Amino acid sequence: xxxxxxxxxxxxxxxxxxxxxxxxxxxxxxxxxxxxxxxxxxxxxxxxxxxxxxxxxxxxxxxxxxxxxxxxxxxxxxxxxxxxxxxxxxxxxxxxxxxxxxxxxxxxxxxxxxxxxxxxxxxxxxxxxxxxxxxxxxxxxxxxxxxxxxxxxxxxxxxxxxxxxxxxxxxxxxxxxxxxxxxxxxxxxxxxxxxxxxxxxxxxxxxxxxxxxxxxxxxxxxxxxxxxxxxxxxxxxxxxxxxxxxxxxxxxxxxxxxxxxxxxxxxxxxxxxxxxxxxxxxxxxxxxxxxxxxxxxxxxxxxxxxxxxxxxxxxxxxxxxxxxxxxxxxxxxxxxxxxxxxxxxxxxxxxxxxxxxxxxxxxxxxxxxxxxxxxxxxxxxxxxxxxxxxxxxxxxxxxxxxxxxxxxxxxxxxxxxxxxxxxxxxxxxxxxxxxxxxxxxxxxxxxxxxxxxxxxxxxxxxxxxxxxxxxxxxxxxxxxxxxxxxxxxxxxxxxxxxxxxxxx
Length: 504
Fold this sequence. Notes:
Elements: H1 3-8, E1 11-18, H2 22-34, E2 40-44, H3 52-55, H4 67-70, H5 86-99, E3 106-108, E4 110-118, E5 123-130, E6 136-146, E7 170-172, E8 187-191, H6 195-205, E9 210-215, E10 221-224, H7 229-238, H8 240-264, H9 266-280, H10 287-290, E11 303-306, H11 309-315, E12 319-323, E13 326-329, E14 333-336, E15 341-343, E16 346-349, E17 362-365, E18 368-369, E19 377-378, E20 382-383, E21 389-391, H12 400-421, E22 425-428, E23 438-439, H13 446-449, E24 457-458, H14 470-479, E25 487-490
Parallel strand pairs: 1-2, 1-6, 2-3, 4-17, 6-21, 7-16, 8-9, 8-16, 9-12, 10-11
Antiparallel strand pairs: 4-5, 5-6, 13-14, 14-15, 17-18, 19-20, 22-25, 23-24
Helix pairs in contact: 2-12, 6-11, 7-8, 8-9, 12-14
Pfam family, one: NAD_binding_8
InterPro entries: FAD-binding_MO, FAD/NAD-bd_sf, Flavin_mOase-like
Family: Belongs to the FAD-binding monooxygenase family.
């Protein structure tokens, strides 16, 4: 076969979406609805859709945001429970994909290894490995939409623990939860104090002999109702669509109020959270030791516990919290800096994620390797100097999907503008090389801080600021024009594009 024939055999799509989780399914739906003439495919490295909600299988896994805001704006959440379990969320996501005709667009076992951009051809060449067969394939696309989230799917973060190899019990990480793990009647220690740990503790407490949450540093933990009584009433009397829309607006306002209040009045917020915790726990419980973080509320994400389930498990004596540091594992448990030793049968290392931007995909532009840390995020959805590449990262201070929806809308409007104007290439460029930058995710959580030097940056002004405010983003991404002085458009001669398009 000649070189020209080989080139013509490469499949081409208008948009290639990487990831079939909540962001990728959302992006596919917006493309299908807003730009029905566009060809697209969704590549998923794993064997199933759903992203996080299919990957994690640990006991009790659930959302820590309400599904009226974590769900899609276009698809009402009909379940009575607004703080929902992973199976319910997964069913919702897959139902969305089927209803919008996306199932045929998703290609499983397709892991993207690298992407390279050619300005002369105005397209990306995407190198793929079939995870099920090891076969290498290639696609080309006009636009790349990275919807794979921000953490590694193949491994979670576990710090070094002295003496770990001596321990005779079982050690598991929530990200690789064994299906056959039997903890019934056993003593369990969950290491960590974040969202995963506070989910695991009450979920395991009814079956295990006892569950201990071992934390170095306390987190802010808030009891929240599992069911939204007002939202359920609105859906009952106004119908699912109108009721959902109003509940969504209510909860967006509520999230914004809580975050703003905590940032503006941290001392008052701390006192209110302490009061809510004390109300749930037995008299005389050592709140200052176990529920008194050394940082202000929302310097790190607040942990939500539906119907106060964590506090109920503690009050019932089924679970406990220990605030201390591990000195070493022993044959029968862990020894702490205080000298105390916890005897344990099962250790769960709920110690966090490994952050990884764009799934670790290697990126080159016109033959030059791109270091993400050298780029600056444009409107929180593109990167300086990289053409025709968009990505979706949700909010850290409210529901993830709120931002994803706005980004997808803006992305579709941008593509429509380019079609109307006859543009092939769209490249953000910082006009002021002296602009000050700071981390893309300006967040104190340990999993972010461990990887901050590997991530893109953000600027000190629009459009290079990464907004974490829904109402600001409604104006920026939904109401404002897609045209911007620091977003450069161009076109290429048709004769320079040599690969033949194949409808996808």
